[in-house]
């Protein structure tokens, strides 16, 4: 009998994160699951998506602003292209609502 991992699907991870938020343990969970480099990469990805959605800068300018490669920006852009206008609007609302001043 072969063993299977407990978590084998992205939706299970989403549910895990949702449950951790409900329990007030999301910060601990995400910090424990992600290395410092992965957390930095996620921070970059959030900023990439936000800048792409704002549409004020070219991919090259975003690359220079965030100190990431143009290919990284392009991957984020391609992911956004696969989303509906409604999804993009919701995402922008989420990103705007949760940004810190500064």
UniProtKB/TrEMBL annotation:
Belongs to the TrpR family. GO terms for molecular function: DNA-binding transcription factor activity; sequence-specific DNA binding. One of its GO terms (cellular component) is cytoplasm. It is found in: Cytoplasm. GO terms for biological process: negative regulation of DNA-templated transcription. This is Trp operon repressor homolog. Keywords: Cytoplasm, DNA-binding, Repressor, Transcription, Transcription regulation. This protein is an aporepressor. When complexed with L-tryptophan it binds the operator region of the trp operon and prevents the initiation of transcription.
